[in-house]
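Weekend entry, working from home. Most of the wet-lab plans are on hold until the incubator is repaired, so I used the time to fold the two sequences that have been sitting in the queue since the last round of cloning. Logging both here for the record. First:
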Amino acid sequence: MGISTLRTTTALAAVLLSSPAWAVTPAEVWQSWQDMATSYGQTLTSESVEEGDDAITVSGLTMTQDQDGVTSEMTISELVFTDNGDGTVDVSMPEVIPLTVTTPPAEGETSPTTVTLSITQTDLSMTATGEAGAVGYDFASSETSIKVDKIEGVKAEAVDLVAEAKLADLEGSYSVEGSGADAALSYDASAASMNLTVSGKDPDPSPSADGTATGPTDLNLVISMADLSVSGEGTPINTAMMEDFAKALAGGADSQGEVSAGATTMVFDVVEAGKATHMEMSGASTGLSFGLGPDGFGYGATAKDVKMMVKGDDIPFPQVDVAYAEAAFDLQIPVVKKDTPQDFVLLSKLVDFTISDDIWAMFDPTNQLPRDPATIVIDTKGTATVTADIMDPAAMESMQTPPGELNSFDVTELRAKVAGAELTGAGSFTFDNTDLVTFGGFPTPTGKLELKLTGGNGLLDKLVAMGMFAEDEAMGFRMMLGMFANTSPDKDEMTSTLEFKDKGFFANGQRLQ
């Protein structure tokens, strides 16, 4: 499935799982269901709607969406909204709900492809609570699954796709306040575990290097996760927002959320051109965070205690093992035009990274280098003035200059440790955007960066012993370092202060520019 297919399917599923919480009477719940579907660009039709004294029954409900040529259709045979008599409304639906996604013919083909899926919600309970304008609901299911039942279309049988995702002990809550452009939502859900299985074939793989046919590619994937959770708040994403994010942000749209999981395992097998590859991965925890609003765009990811093993017919070792204690990435950048500086953040971290001795032996067969775990951390932040709306394609196309000015930049932590050597540093800078001449078009900086290198000479000696550097090359490198660093006479340590001041560049007090 493409991005548009996933987006359409996700929108339909969101209506299925969340819309009924918007009301306190059956009529209000049903109306809010229709309103939310409309906001996603969907069309609702039903065979009948029967209104009783304490319930509304909708029969033969079909929810359809057509986006970028991809059509999704979900059918609910019976949907019942029941007044509990205490200000709450129960929502019931069939345990199994079919969903079809049809994509247009690919280039050179004449028939569309239709994927039929089934959404199964075992022991589902859903109750709407709250008051008008501020409605929430609670839901729970002992098991929720999405399964591919069949594929129809060109080469559907050759694909032979089997795919299913299962969530155990799913429960959560969802609430919405307001409506339309002023709506605000919050959600919080968890599941004891998730299991995903996928297998299938690619009937038309890329040809081999000599141009011959390779035969179908076989794929098998199994992923298991424990202790899943998802939470977020902000403006509900609708069709209008997706079509013009710049306009939505100018109107105050703001959404952020987090996804996390505990122990995770993955097993991946693929056979291509008769050659097999097997990969296994495990991790103690993972997390994702995201946000988009007037304050900017943000994306973050973390993973801890990850181990990965790969082996296969094309790998010249029995297997390759990779592990690390922690990996993290965080990006926060302003995207909305403002006259005042806005904050940004960029973090990249890989802690205690190790790799198989077989890989080390490729460039260090005599074990010259310490094979201690490697670490790299780049933790920075700063401020910038955004002069154009970055999410507005028209504004970006018309730009003749960069869409912003750098005001300040702080290196909170710089650390690189590998093969017995370690470099650390920290510093901060401000920038004069009125002077773009002194440093060749770059705003003139003021500030300094403090650096410290330990074990550098020892590492260089080992590289010379390995034959990676000639002795005279190493001597030239040491002389160059001497221009920028102060060397300790009794230990393998160098320090350096790199400073920009008075429109010049200094190293340890010596002006170099």
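Second, folded right after the first finished:
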Amino acid sequence: MKSPKSEKTKTVSLEAKKKAKLKDPISWFTQRFKDVYDRHGVPLDMSLKPVQKEKKTTKVSRVTQLNDAFFAAVFGELGYPDAPTHYTQGSFYRYNTDSGIYDQISDGALEMRICALLHRCAKEIKGKSYDVDPLMFNLSNSTRLGGVIKRAKALLEKPDTFFDNTDAAFIPCSNGMLRIEDRELLPFSQSYHIRNKLDVDYVRDAKCPLFLGKLLGDALELDQINLAQRWGGMALLGENMDHRILLTMGTSGGGKSTFINAMIGVIGQSNIGELRTDQLCDRFELGNLLGKTVLIGNDVPSDFLLKPGATKLKSMVAGDPMSAEIKGATGQISVKGAFNVAIASNSVVCVNIDQDLEAWRRRILPLIFNKPKPKNKDTGLLKKILDQEKPGVLNWMLGGLDALRKDNFHFALNENLMKQTDNFLMSSRAPEIFVEDCLEEREGAKLTKEKVTKSYHEYCKERDWPMGSRKSYPGRIAAKIEHLFGITVSNDIKAEDREDGQVKGWHGIGVKGADM
């Protein structure tokens, strides 16, 4: 039987041999990254360099060059199988074993990791029979490593669809991957391909009485609460499965912003993008939203969806691939247009319907906060919900996801919600509907533009509809009159409040029910 002492001696001897093997810089890398070496070959090129020492000239091995392919691949799956770095959608992403998600890192950050690896080798080998100073200086400077980074973009490249949510079986919570089917919490893994997770732990049976009672119960009807719950469930997935846009409107101070901010608190601010319709046509705006799962337009004006960029919004929720540009990156990338979108406004938001009435009807989810504002508003309600009830709100949202799954991820709206949708769409056609409802062709009648404008204002006020832009609605009214009655604007209408003088208006058009 071998003595403990002999076993210890053998162990020390093995360690000594191992260290001896690492005395040269090539072995230092190849033993650490064997799979990279097998695929891409020797990491370094070395040559003999004459050195004057004690009146004698000897030769030492000097590092002269890097193998770009080796160092480009070293932080990928071959070198770090448990925490690989990939290149997709114009950026590097590194799997973070602590957080369980892929973190976006810059070209410079990856360059610094390679640089640190070279410096570590140089420090551990320095003083032996090798000249490793080039690893510390000219071979690890930014200019030299730029070529390695360029090669890494090719070797570590993954498809632009790498982070696309291909199924709806798991929800990434703060404390693990929640399997939806049985509410089992599983460990994170790089195989899930996620770069987003919720900002809340999953806690089985957690409740949210303040959120349900004091916020939603006081602000919405039951069918609206069910709609809000199902939208919240879809927002958990990180993908807009039914291509919808949540539009919350109504009473100022009635709870819209509190609801939206509670959703943000669960989903996580880092996963939220600001929806700016006036910027959507800009070159890099879509690229700026890369990696976001929910886009929020909070407290927007009534013309928010009339901006030129709003036409892109339907594509951004339709599930189709879209081209985008990233600042600093070459070429275009593909982005899946499957953002969840929520818009909140104190006024009625208008859309530019044109010929897309049915398309907008299919997209809109109306959430109308039309109950009176609470007399004694709890200004600290949102903080209480986020501090005390976030896991409960998550469970409520999961209930909405269950309901959506049963309906094959389709929002079925009841008669009341469809009526609210149609009312919203009608308000967007206010100038045209006003002409149809309030004006008629009548022989001998005269109608000034001033009278039409006044009648239109009253018409919109009665229905709580936005009038639209002062630059657009007069022209839309005139165009509708011409289309409906074949009568154009005249410049010779006698003003009602003047004895002489003429103003613009229409001959043969009158207000329904009026004498003239």
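Plan for Monday: verify the second prediction. The chain has 19 helices and 19 strands.
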